[in-house]
């Protein structure tokens, strides 16, 4: 009986070691097969879960995070699980959570070189981004103009989280009612946040003050891209109904309008 139960365990350890060897050699398909073989036999084999979490880091960080979370629930003190969890969170843009994951590794092992290095680098990047956003904010409020708004908007979209960018832009919208262009930046921030309805609402707020063929075309293109064809046609109707407007379209806009039809 001892021999009968020991053999499968040996096989699983062999599969796990094979999986790690394949992973280190960049043979991802073979590594995946080896780890999944182990989990098929032992569903709570947390080291294979962490192996899969590493495997999916670049191609599917959400999946990587799921495997890391499951491994940590099984063995909360497993350092590699927290480390790969931090890496997955970084790739998903959840930097505060990633920093906390690295801190957890360090709590378990204060001398963990990789976790310490990753945490320092992450905190440095976060601070650099905050500094850039703060400087752009101060520049805009010291001299509100389309030029400083454009610079601030670009930095917000590049360096801030979508919710942070929206908060900054909404403050401008409320305080500077003479700058409807901020709605275009709000639309871009809504798009980055995956909020299609919010994006369209921001464009409509701009159009209410500054009619624009270009903005209508952008709205229609965005709606068509997600399969909302009827809504796209509704956006285009005012252009097509106005012969004077149609006559002013340049070649590029005419081509875009024809394509959207």
Textual characterization of the structure:
The structure is a single chain. The chain has 261 residues and is mostly helical. 82% of the residues lie in helices and 0% in strands. It has 15 helices and no strands. Helix 1 (2-24) runs antiparallel to helix 2 and helix 11 packs antiparallel against helix 12. Residues 1-7 have low confidence and may be disordered.
Rg for CA atoms: 26 Å
Which of globular, elongated, flat, extended, rod-shaped describes the shape?
elongated
Q: What is the number of helices?
A: 15
Beta-strand fraction estimate: under 5%
* Portion in helices: over 70%
The main sheet comes to: none
Overall pLDDT level: 88
Query: What's the N-to-C terminus distance?
Result: 74 Å
DSSP strand count: 0
**Structural class designation:** mainly alpha
Instruction: Spell the H/E element sequence.
Output: HHHHHHHHHHHHHHH
What ranges have pLDDT less than 50 throughout 5 or more consecutive residues? 1-7
